[in-house]
Amino acid sequence: MAVRIDGKKISQQIKDELKEKVSALRQEGKEGTLAVIQVGADPASSVYVRNKKNACAYIGIGSLSYELKEDTSEEELLRLVEELNGKEEVKGILVQLPLPSHICEANVIHAISPEKDVDGFHPQSVGKLAIGEPGFAPCTPAGIIQLLKRSGIEIAGKHCVVIGRSNIVGKPMALLTLKENATVTVTHSKTKNLPEICRQADILIVAMGKPRFIGAEYVKEGAVVIDVGIHRDAGNKLCGDVKFEEVEPIASAITPVPGGVGPMTIAMLMDNCVRGIEKGPNTMLQG
Ligand code: NAD
User: Catalytic residue at 286?
Assistant: First the structure.
């Protein structure tokens, strides 16, 4: 039976470490604020935004919240981003995605100063990640690296198969596991023989956005399985991309949904904010 990787516990450890770091930085006169912008009132986004503000309060950094109306124009949003770019005390800017369809997400992401890009989505952050220079790494994949390391799972030399190639999860996940010296295979919706490729994985990271898709036939005995998916099933219960009860007996370690990858994303956002306060973009969390 697999070890359950406890994302709630590990994210709490990280937040507690950050709380201490924030207090030490304050002694040195270093403080800062995260600015969170939400356009429209999508209920899921509102929950995420509230959780981010609560996490800021917990670790002891400021948060500024901008709740803009659904019909805010792209120009207005870009003006706000520009204004926040120029504010010394704002060390991180986060625009909650998705944005309403009349606003081009890429234009907004590109407008955020790379020094304040705590989501790690700006092309400069992505480029730095690709060439191995210090910069902000996207929070969900950075959180998965922490889950693995803090669970004592060796990444170097392992065959890591990533399902999904999104800019937010799959691609940066591949780059981060490569940086950790894994042998990496990236799979996607056009991949042929997916079960066969997945069965070669020592570490299988599933970010496909398909509820309960990955069953036992995709998993090698003893593999580590990380489930990034978040969905509500027919009974309104949270579930992931993995059939947990089918895969758990085969895997050596597995993340549950909820309580696995989810809580790590906010912890790593806080880590990026603290790095912004410390001295601008720094190395990705190494610990
Ligand atoms: P996405 O829809 O942007 O990307 C999904 C990827 O899966 C695509 O690259 C696609 O090619 C691949 N895919 C789809 N069907 C496939 C198939 N049959 N075989 C192989 N590959 C296939 O999604 P995303 O933004 O990367 O998110 C993935 C999942 O992770 C979603 O459920 C999302 O809600 C969740 N998520 C969770 C967190 C978190 O904090 N836990 C953060 C981001 C995303």
Answer: no
